[in-house]
Structures are given as C-alpha cells and as structure tokens.
C-alpha cells in the first residue's frame, strides 16, 4: 500500500564527526540505538511519517558526514532543506566550537529561513560534560535556534527534536511565512493534501527533483 501524507519536509542532520548524528537518525527511524556506528561516508538517508498537529508529515532526512574531506559532497544536499538538526557532543568542547561554521553553511546553502534545532547529544555522558546546558542555551538564543539535549543511546528527546522542528515548519506554513509552492522550500504537498488535486503531474515531478526525493 502506498504511503499517504499531507506534507513532505526535507531535513538535514549536520555537525562535526563523532557527535552521534547517524545514531540520532537511527534512533528516530528504528527506535533503537545503532551499536556498530562508523563515520558516515558522504550522506545517509532515512524517512519516517509522523503526526504533527493533526497532519501527516513525511520527514525525508539526510544525515551528512561531519568530516572535512566530505564537506564538498555534503554541501550539495543542503539546498532545499526546510529543517535541520545541528548536533554537537556535550562531552566535546571541540564539536561545540565548530557550531558557528555549520550554522553559517546551513543558512547560506540551504535557506536563511531554515528551521534549526540545536541538539546537545550524548546527554548520557553527563559525567564527562564539557559544555554546560546554560552555555549552549545562550548560544541557541543568540542565534535564534531552538535547543534540546538529546541521547541517541537512551532515546531521550530524540523524537521531540525532530517533531519540534517539524511543528515549527508546519506553523509557519499555516501562518503563510513558508510557501510549499516556492521552489527549493524543502516542502511538498503530499497525496493526502487537498492541494494535491490542484497539482499537475508535471509539477509533482518537478517538486520531486527539487527535493532530491
């Protein structure tokens, strides 16, 4: 049976290598911890349909490699992303210090209006913490980001991070701030949307290409 949904949102998971980006994605998609996690080579992909504010939304998630040598490859996936999880490791000051660069990339290459949630991952490593909640919270506030601490190991706040981002995108669509019709918006109407009937087949094909579906 084919999936039906009201909207499709393109998401990115970005941040330095070793912050647990692939594990966050795996926990969200599979609802379990990814034991044998190696560094992502290039880009990995996952998708899941969630209920957001009474709407059925398909999240199409691109997990990007954090290593510098893959930067040119991963940057090409930023275009047309509606939302992003910007991830650092609470036990690694180095990954936190790199956030500004990742943020600049996202806002320059994806869209200035991209909805970003800052995720302090590996909350289970609280004893080894190098970045305080308050410090990261201040960074998020200064850069107009939402903020949560997550644990891909225990699953804490993982679902909430993706859903919080999706809820914000949906509310901006409903308020008219975001337009799914706009090219490279990272948003598409799905089969279940009443707007779908108004779309010609050609437009659907065009949208798929824009969204890298």
TrEMBL record:
CDD domains (UniProt xref): Rab4
Entry keyword annotation includes Heme: no
Enzymatic reactions: GTP + H2O = GDP + phosphate + H(+)
Biased segments, Polar residues type: 202-213
Topology versus the membrane: Lipid-anchor
One BP annotation, GO: vesicle-mediated transport
Cofactor: Mg(2+)
Entry-linked SMART domains: RAB, RAN, RAS, RHO
Segments of this protein annotated with the region Disordered: 189-213
Organism domain of life: Eukaryota
Keywords, comma-separated and alphabetical: Endosome, GTP-binding, Hydrolase, Lipoprotein, Magnesium, Membrane, Metal-binding, Methylation, Nucleotide-binding, Prenylation, Protein transport, Transport
A single MF term (Gene Ontology): GTPase activity
A GO CC term assigned to this protein in UniProt: plasma membrane
Family membership noted in the UniProt record: Belongs to the small GTPase superfamily. Rab family.
Purpose of the protein: The small GTPases Rab are key regulators of intracellular membrane trafficking, from the formation of transport vesicles to their fusion with membranes. Rabs cycle between an inactive GDP-bound form and an active GTP-bound form that is able to recruit to membranes different sets of downstream effectors directly responsible for vesicle formation, movement, tethering and fusion.
Protein name per the record: Ras-related protein Rab-4
Organism: Xenopus tropicalis (Western clawed frog)
Gene name linked to the record: rab4b
């Amino acid at each position: 049976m084919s999936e039906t949904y009201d909207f499709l949102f393109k998401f990115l998971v970005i941040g330095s290598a070793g912050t647990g980006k692939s594990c966050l994605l795996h926990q969200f998609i599979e609802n379990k911890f990814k034991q044998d996690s190696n560094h992502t080579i290039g880009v990995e992909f996952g998708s899941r349909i969630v209920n957001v504010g009474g709407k059925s939304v398909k999240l199409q998630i691109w997990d990007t490699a954090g290593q510098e040598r893959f930067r040119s490859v991963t940057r090409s996936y930023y275009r047309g992303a509606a939302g992003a999880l910007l991830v650092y490791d609470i036990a690694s000051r180095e990954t936190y210090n790199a956030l500004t660069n990742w943020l600049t990339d996202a806002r320059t290459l994806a869209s200035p209006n991209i909805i970003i949630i800052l995720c302090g991952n590996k909350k289970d490593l609280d004893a080894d913490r190098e970045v305080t909640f308050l410090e990261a919270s201040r960074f998020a506030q200064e850069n107009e980001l939402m903020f949560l601490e997550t644990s891909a190991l225990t699953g804490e706040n993982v679902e909430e991070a993706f859903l919080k981002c999706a809820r914000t995108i949906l509310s901006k669509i409903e308020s008219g701030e975001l337009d799914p019709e706009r090219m490279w918006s990272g948003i598409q109407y799905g089969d279940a949307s009443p707007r779908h009937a108004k779309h010609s087949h050609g437009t659907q094909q065009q949208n798929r290409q824009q969204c890298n579906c």
